[in-house]
Specification:
Length: 334
């Protein structure tokens, strides 16, 4: 019999401290305003960690997802951890999470580095691992600590105002008989735009890992060509959503809920309008989370469940775009 996979449970974690735009407004070196941030991005607040690491947040989100799936940690066969802001350069966060969740049980752990598309890449892989019979139950988790690595000056304000910290997790497991589970995915990358949204230093590509001059120049902070990213994000998200719909024989009208990556509310409004998806089918969280990168889509799933918008057997479109450039979409039955 053909194996199918579905999402069995989701969980999220946001640090306690919510940072409203008005708090960023108080940082004189940033020269930003609540009005500018809300108008251009739709963001009102984001959360920042206090003492938590990305792995700590992932642990809490994973525990919640495992519980929602009516499972225990012993049921998890494999970890996929997506993040662009790992606790350490190496080893990856997956290993640290394995220790926190499983201790002496040596569950395999894979780190995925696909930025805002990280969760979609991970979900696609988890689907394949379950369908192939390699594993029965895979933990897919995204977590980001952005706040410790942002440039709180005018130079970095475009990027700084959009990012927030948080974690989201999903348990991917075998779909029961009669449930159609995950239908299909589309994943893409276009590396010629790598430097349009990147963190250049430290690196192993040039002569030095990082120099004092690099640090003084702020080259260890993320840099983004916002307008270019915006333009590509809307075009590619529409394209890949249509690709997945065509591949699975579905239409926009069949979709019950749409969960976009949350980088800018304007991107999502434009993408929904280009896809002809009515606003009431879209759940956004960016207003109070900012862009939590790989954690975003599972956080959106949690919020959609909380709002009662995501129900058993609903057809859900997930779609995102980010650094790389990378982008993707997944279509699945809830
Ligand atoms: N506060 C006040 N002014 C600002 C800020 C700020 N936070 N940021 C930029 N500005 C100023 C600029 O300096 C510029 O001023 P000038 O006209 O005097 O030169 C003006 O606002 C316009 O700047 P733009 O960068 O052109 O502003 P834009 O309307 O494009 O908005 C934004 C910037 C919000 C970043 C937008 O371009 C965007 O959302 N881009 C896409 C982001 C995205 O999708 N990222 C992908 C995911 S992230 C990931 O994968 C890691």
């Amino acid at each position: 019999m053909t194996r199918k996979s579905r999402i069995l449970g989701v969980g999220m974690y946001l640090p306690e401290r919510s940072v409203p735009n008005t708090e960023l407004e108080q940082i004189k070196s940033m020269e930003t305003s609540d009005e500018w941030i809300q108008q251009r991005t739709g963001i009102q607040a984001r959360h920042y960690v206090s003492t938590e690491t990305g792995t700590d947040m992932a642990y809490h989100a994973s525990k919640a997802a495992i519980e929602r799936a009516n499972l225990t940690a012993d049921d998890i066969d494999f970890i996929i951890f997506a993040t662009l802001s790992p606790d350490h350069y190496f080893p990856g966060n997956g290993c640290f999470l394995q220790d926190q969740l499983f201790g002496d049980r040596p569950v395999g752990a894979l780190d995925v580095r696909n930025q805002c598309s990280g969760f979609l890449y991970s979900l696609t892989l988890a689907d394949s691992l379950v369908k192939s019979g390699q594993y029965n139950t895979v933990l897919v988790v995204g977590a980001e600590v952005h706040s410790r690595g942002l440039d709180y000056t005018k130079k970095g304000r475009d990027v700084t105002v959009i990012f927030g910290d948080g974690a989201g997790a999903a348990i991917v497991g075998l779909a029961p008989d009669g449930h159609q589970g995950m239908l299909g995915h589309g994943l893409h990358s276009e590396g010629k735009y790598a430097s349009a949204l990147w963190l250049e230093y430290p690196n192993n590509a040039y002569d030095f890992f990082i120099t004092h001059e690099n640090l003084d120049a702020g080259l260890h902070y993320p840099k983004m060509q916002g307008r270019l990213v915006f333009k590509h994000a809307t075009r590619r998200m529409v394209e890949v959503s249509n690709e997945v719909l065509t591949k699975t024989g579905k239409t926009v009208d069949d979709i019950d809920v749409v969960l976009f990556h949350q980088a800018n509310l304007r991107i999502n409004q434009m993408t929904a309008s280009m896809l002809k998806v009515p606003e009431e089918k879209v759940v956004n969280t960016i207003q109070w989370t900012g862009n939590t990168t790989a954690a975003t889509i599972p956080i959106c799933m949690c919020e959609a469940v909380r709002q009662g918008k995501l129900k058993e057997n609903d057809l859900v479109l997930l779609c995102g775009f980010g650094a790389g450039f990378t982008w993707g979409a997944s279509l699945l039955y809830w």
